[in-house]
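#data-curation
PF: Archiving a pair of folding outputs for the training set. Convention for this channel: one message per protein, sequence first, structure tokens after, nothing in between. First:
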Amino acid sequence: MSTDKPEDLPSDEELGQMDRDQLVELGNKLDGVELVEYPDPWPVKGTRAEKRAERQVAFWFAMSGLTGLAFVAAFIFWPAKYKAYNEPGHVMYSLYTPVIGLTLGLAILCVGIGVLTYTRRFVPHEVAIQQRHDGGSNELDKATILANLADAGNRSTIARRPLIKRSLAFGGGVLGLALTALPLGSLLRNPHAQSANKDGLLHTPWLHTSKDEKVFLRRATGHAEEISLVRPEDLDAGSMETVFPFRESEREDHEALIKVFKRGDSPVMLIRLRPQDAARVVKHEGQEDFNYGDYYAYTKICSHVGCPTSLYEQRSNRILCPCHQSQFDALQYAKPVFGPATRKLAQLPITVDEETGYFISTGDFIEPIGPAYWERKS
């Protein structure tokens, strides 16, 4: 704003009596602004072309509202529960993420196109020349700039276009609802409702339902009915294998065999350290007997944001998460040594069943797996 004011400035009383047009003219004069062009986009009001342009803008705002409603409906009602490729409903499940992404993207795109179309068709495209000056803004400058803004809004003719205003309110309101549906959706389900069993945050499918139950370590072969259990001799020194829980009571239960692979908290990394590395292991307090010789089992769920820690580097004995490059030291109870993760990977207690020679877990994880949440104490 200009600091070199002309001497014939209006008094506060005169300033209060000025209308908007006078304030706009005064503001331009004070700021050294010269309006070269300020054409009215529609010098003849109410023409068919003007009405057509208004309907185009309203169309895009209305489309934003409709696609926003479609997003909210899909987010709430579309089947999002995992279905394997050979199960009924797999196609609908596989379309869940594309549908909510497409509808939300279209809602944002349509409101953007509507704003751009309105700007092109109804906002005057002025050409102005202004001298630049240093300094702050006083009360006179503030009054005149507000008048300029109000004048720009008036010249854009938004006040006399109820169709555009209503469609913008509809599209913008629904888009706002769509953007709040994501955080609100997480509040619809109580995450602690089943904390005492494997469906709560504190436990996993590795939880023993009885004292004498045996939970074996099972490979994923790609076929749910194919049961492939793991023996110590199956792993070479320095190797890693992903395993899932298996109970003999589930052998003939097709649903149970499939469900274990759907659970995000099921997969575990079974690592066999090289003998020279196993001699340097530092165990976590209270978990000194969780391993079986050179064999250690850690959850595959990263403690940062829950990505799968699918990589094991044999030479450095580091477990790597490919999402955000967190690294965990397998020789020091899988504590984080690099990246954003701040908690160690939970360790599963394992041993070998004397009767069968297969690996079994001796219990569930003694701490929650995955990323932190508000009530977590470890």
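PF: Second:
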Amino acid sequence: MLPVSFNMERVADLLPELEPLMSAHWNEASEFASSHPFSPDVATYAALDRVDALRVFTLRCDATKQLVGYSIAIVSRHPNCDIRKADQVGFYIKPSHRRGRIATKLLAYMEHQLAAEGVRFVTQNTSPQLDFSKVLTRVGYRLLEQTYIKELTPIGD
């Protein structure tokens, strides 16, 4: 594998390059991809970025500077106690770069950057379609709760 670099970048500077990877992630990992096409809420990402709540950690190929992976987190105060937390809302590495423990290296970079700004807890999500719970467990994450989802039929449509 070619050498890679880790960085923290602003979504405003990155979105045109980030969207194709986010789309690939959606299509690979989301059970809704066939019924709900990828359509990111750019305004929400921009709003979170403006209030300095969004963190985008990137993985780039050193030789080409091409974006090959990312981790996106929303940083906030926990609503029930005085602790800063980060909730991961996206973690993806292109299939061509999924080797050599690159996921654990991206996680370590993200955790180091978040800890440096006072974040105490990080939540990670993983889907059954692209499960990386074994990686998370190996680097110290533990199962906290399970999430269930039910799609509702809109009333009046």
